[in-house]
From TrEMBL:
Pfam families hit by this protein: DUF7575 (PF24460)
Record's keyword terms, sorted: Membrane, Transmembrane, Transmembrane helix
The protein, known as: Zinc ribbon domain-containing protein
Amino acid composition bias (Acidic residues), ranges on this chain: 132-142
Organism this protein belongs to: Natronorubrum halalkaliphilum
Biased composition, class Basic and acidic residues, residue ranges: 143-152
Leader sequence segment: none
Length: 152
């Protein structure tokens, strides 16, 4: 399921940078990529001319003819970088990354994020977690008694 999640994150990031990061619940990166993309659109597109266009086809003609190559490159680079970053983050790269959070309790073996002790699955990546049987304290006490040498 991880590869399917990565493909969905990449596809959403191509549609709107930041949306793929929102899918994988990486909220800070989602806001950064969406903010960068919207800022670049406002900076590089002739928004006044597009808003004054009479139809959508006229607006698209204005957007393609009035936008220079460098502006198109910047927008394409942002989309591509957001898609690649969302894909790698959804696949779990870099290994052990958990969005800067420190995991104090048990962590998921699949995604590395902190687990809720009441659930039998990871609520981040839906990996089923097998419950661990706690060893009885009496068994531990018996083991420690056997290991200690007897004193005269």
């Amino acid at each position: 399921m991880t590869w399917l999640r990565a493909l969905a994150a990449a596809g959403l990031s191509v549609f709107m940078p930041g949306a793929g990061h929102a899918l994988i619940r990486d909220w800070l990166r989602a806001l950064v990529f969406a903010g960068l993309y919207i800022s670049a659109i406002l900076l590089f597109f002739p928004t006044e001319q597009i808003a004054a266009a009479g139809s959508i086809s006229d607006a698209m003609d204005i957007a393609t003819s009035e936008t220079d190559t460098i502006s198109q490159f910047v927008l394409s680079f942002l989309v591509l970088f957001a898609a690649i970053d969302a894909t790698f983050r959804a696949m779990g790269f870099p290994p052990g990354s958990n969005n800067g959070e420190s995991v104090e309790g048990p962590s998921c073996p699949e995604c590395g994020k902190e687990l809720d002790a009441d659930l039998e699955f990871c609520h981040w990546c839906t990996t089923r977690i097998e419950p661990v049987e706690p060893e009885s304290e009496s068994a531990d006490a018996d083991q420690s008694e056997r290991e200690e040498p007897t004193r005269p």
